[in-house]
Amino acid sequence: MAANAALEVLDDDNRDSIGLLILGTESGIDQSKAGALYVQRLLGLKNARAFEIKEACYGATAGLMTAYDFVAAHPEQKALVIGSDIARYGLDTPGEVTQGAGAVAMIVSAAPRLLALEPATAIHSDDIQDFWRPNYSKEAFARGKYSTEQYIEFFQATWADYRAQTGRTISDFNALTFHLPYTKMGLKALRTILPEATETEQAHLLDRYQESTLYSRQIGNIYTGALYLGFLSLLEQSTQLAAGDRIGLFSYGSGAISEFFTGILQPGFEKQLAGADHKAMLAARRQLTMAEYENQFQAELPEDGSEYEIDLAMDNAPIILKGVKEHERNYQVRD
After folding, report:
1. Residue 326 Ramachandran class (φ > 0 left, ψ -120 to 50 alpha, else beta)
2. InterPro entries from the entry (predicted)?
């Protein structure tokens, strides 16, 4: 998924200038080797700093901030940051309805064409047990109500810190986007600061929020990519955005760390979007029967070292996992 997502943002102008490749994920495939190295080979990229970051759903944001610093120090180079995950909770569990899978890829450069990140950010972190997955478990453990409470508190803390740092208010934003484990979670946080806005501003921000949730409603939770899926949804669904608008982004990773940061939409940002392609991709999906869904859910790669070949009949992606042989995953680019 990470490599396939990156194909959408790579072109002849940026491919050879990538000096940093970061994969943010909590669905790692190896206890030692970084998934970023698989991605580098599959994409045909040259030598680069390539590594994997883990901190729950915050991993892609950690990668983005690292890339920001890297590009500031090496403006002639670019960074590729990817958030890719499988959100899995188990059949007949409360979290089953929020499951999802997907990846979002971003190119970070000194001359951004979509969003220019601003330097001021606000961070809040603490050692809490709201959501975690030990090495021995394929499904996560979660304290749902507690996690929601912490998500809101962390947002309030970062929002207050950001306002104190910058002197900006809610009136300085055209939209606020959130990490979306499920689509109402960000709304619960947004509502805590809406009283700071006028009624007109409140209606505007709520409309933009709804636009940011459309893709998540169709795809589900994709962990590290969820915030950026929401941001992409906003850009491709809204007709009320313009160059120069300030967008706020709230990232949250259980365990927990959060960050509130901002960016300014760039002139011509609309040319960087692929809304029609994404709409067609979603429309091309086929609804599964319950039996098909449960069979696919329960299909797993072996964990005993045996070989396994995957039925690729339902996978039309350009980059695929064919199976496992001699303890190695066999990823290939289709001809």
Report:
1. left
2. HMG_CoA_synt_C_dom, HMG_CoA_synth_N, HMG_CoA_synthase_prok, Thiolase-like
From CA 6, how far away is CA 277, in angstroms rounded? 15
Q: Which of 190, 196, 200, 236 is nearest to 216 (CA)?
A: 236
H or E stretch at 117? strand 115-117
Q: For the whole model, what pTM was predicted?
A: 0.96
Structure token digits, residue 162: 């950001």
Segment 241-248 long-range contacts (CB within 8 Å, at least 24 positions apart): 241/174, 241/175, 241/265, 241/269, 242/174, 243/267, 243/268, 243/269, 245/174, 245/175, 246/118, 246/172, 246/173, 246/174, 247/115, 247/173, 247/174, 247/175, 247/176, 247/177, 248/173, 248/175, 248/176, 248/177
Helix (H, G, I), strand (E, B) or coil at 257: strand
Active site residues: 26, 57, 179
pLDDT digits (tens, 9 = 90+) for 271-301: 999 999 999 999 999 999 999 999 989 988 9
Residues 6+ apart with CB under 8 A from 324: 301, 302, 306, 307, 308, 330
Average pLDDT value over all residues in the chain: 96
